[in-house]
Amino acid sequence: MSSRIGWIFGVPFAILIFACPILEIGKIELFSRTDGVLTYDTNVEYTYLVLSLVAPSVLILVYFFKCNWDNISPTTAKSLLVVYLFASIGISIAYTVFTINELKGIPFGCPDNYHYETSKVQTACQARAANFISLWAFIFFLILNSILLILGVNPLDEDKLFARDSKRRKSKSATSTQPPLGGGSGPFSQIELGQQQQQMKEKEDIQVEK
């Protein structure tokens, strides 16, 4: 079940983490090729680009370079997640407001029957649409994944997503008498660890009362 949740929510989220900065770079480049027909605010675009690189940088450090987050408590990890969530929502709203008029009357969907000055303008328009959709899709999956993490489910748990030896996992789950306490070392695993520890404590309290 956890693996299925990971594929449904974690994998699209991970793809969007890398897609957002790539599409932003594409938008900037294609806008620059319209010979001034479409322009962008340098401060807004480059600020968003830098901020959009935060998530992929963290993901690379955690899952590829195996950075150790064990010193971060589950409470701190959860607090950082909430701060990042609201900061991302605020940045997305601000970015949308600042860029709302940059198409200069061109419909958002960039229809083929619209009269564009050049084909490059339509391509730039399509790049902007893709960038905008990916931005809010990222926010949507960020909210969903944050809720799952707070509930104790880690959609980006690499052990559940990319386990190669399913038989070994089944045998371990069959012989183990206690739930695993945070298989990963990332900040998401720390949140999941806190939830598991709390559940174990509640079970122990119930047994003591009996």
Automatic annotation (TrEMBL):
Keyword Cell membrane recorded: no
Region (Disordered) residue spans: 165-210
Keyword line: Membrane, Transmembrane, Transmembrane helix
Compositional bias ranges of the Basic and acidic residues kind: 200-210
Keyword Transmembrane in record: yes
Record field: transmembrane: 7-26, 46-65, 77-98, 133-154
Protein name from the UniProt record: MARVEL domain-containing protein
Record organism: Rhizophagus clarus
Phylogenetic classification of the source organism: Eukaryota, Fungi, Fungi incertae sedis, Mucoromycota, Glomeromycotina
